[in-house]
Amino acid sequence: MEQLLGAQQQRQQHHQPHRSISPRTPTRPHLQHIPSNRFRDHHRPQPHAGLRILRITPPFFLLLLAAVYLLASFTILSAPAASLRPAKNPNRLIVPMPPPSPDLFELDNGRIRARISNVGATVTSLLVPDKNGVLGDVVLGFDSLDPYLNGTSPYFGCIVGRVANRIKDGKFTLNGVQHSLSINSPPNTLHGGFKGFDKVIWEVTEYNKGKTPSVTLKYYSKDGEEGFPGNVSVTARYSLLSSMALKLEMEAVPLNKATPISLAQHTYWNLAGHSSGDVLAHSLQIQGSQITPVDETSIPTGEFMPVSGTPFDFLTENEIGGRIDQVPGGYDHNYVLDSGEVRSGLQHVAKVTDPSSLRVLNIWSDAPGVQFYTGNFVNGVLGKGGAVYGKHAGLCLETQGFPNAVNQPNFPSVVVHPGEKYIHTMLFDFSTK
Length: 433
Fold this sequence. Notes:
By secondary structure, this protein is mostly beta strands. Helix content is 12%, strand content 31%. Strands 10, 11, 12, 13, 16, 19, 21, 22, 23 and 29 form a ten-stranded antiparallel sheet that branches.
């Protein structure tokens, strides 16, 4: 009977295309008119006795049809609601939204000028004045977005995640479940795996060009991406303040599962200009009296080592190249940040000075650690304007959670639960000496 009613509904919809018929509304069956017995022509041949009985008792047939009608109505209305619930607009064609396209967005406050790409939420260019007011580009990068897209960029200027830095053997256990991640830096996972946040195209949700220009980018990281559990909504907002400062506000919200989250901004700085050579003459101060020493695969041992009396001591300003030869391979270590000077809720992390341009960069953040990296693996990279970036062509100061913290119970936890929000803010404040 449901099939008969369904077929009749289809015929009605075909002939009446503008009428919407809900599956929950039973269609009234077509009743054939049967003439009353009193109008029958007595001179016509008499039908068979069985047919005569039906024709002379029309109430019986009407009762039968009524019973069938009620049965059909009950069957339709008692069917599972999910299979009968009509669409809000059954005639509307649902077209999936196209993925965002790679693009660049310029921020200019009249003093400094930044170019941000939605590929990896990357700072591709940052023009800052020197002691004479001459603008210079102080970040390493590329003229084209292709290297950022195809994975040949050594993390120039991007945001890395879901977990920055290394996770030992690409494994961790959370709530009794072991998770295996992509091993993109054998034997470990580095910066989120083969396709971390730096290699995806973020959605631009807001772009302002006013006195405090900004761009807000968003990325939705799915459950199982590179092996990490749970869906996560990530937001990054770059803005230029009225002073010569670039601010970055990062947030991440796990939607359905607990998951480790630790984002980092991975710009390579060269305050003398991106094409000026190495940064070994830059002076550096880091507000960290301890580092987390590492093993032969750059995984922290879980210990805390005081920097005093070692080539890792930058508590006072020191030239980067002064003792780098005492550090096998160069600097690539996490500093435990001390509680020191605070500005707008952010603590002072580091100060970098270039002796030639006299540009100064002060970094502020609310993260517990900072990775100091001297571009040890940059070798012959063709960059902006034909510049060739060699070893130590830039330095990174990546504020972060501690490396491999998800496997080290004595490190600050990087696990974020549903209902919680990960917040990480950085301020890059420029001046001249």
